[in-house]
Give the backbone structure.
Amino acid sequence: MRRILVDYARKQKAAKREGTEKKIQLEESLVMAREQPGDLLEVHEALERFAREHERQSRVVRIAFFWGSHEDEIAQIVGVSVETVKRDWRFARRG
């Protein structure tokens, strides 16, 4: 899903530069990609840098941000406790 959002954001950003931006109705998860493609690309790049040193924490952030999952779902997906997810989320927000 993250790759889809990033690709979509890149296309939207390019369309804005060319003056051919199209308005299409998408799921709520694509709102940021459509309205703020530059911001989404910055998030993507920041996550890439963060993942180089903090793989698990970046995975928690990706799942929460791009999938919209809750802490208990993230814990199950990543294979850690809910408390670990909460710590990872706090750590990522500080960074």
In short: The helical segments are 2-18, 31-35, 37-53, 55-67, 71-78, 82-94.
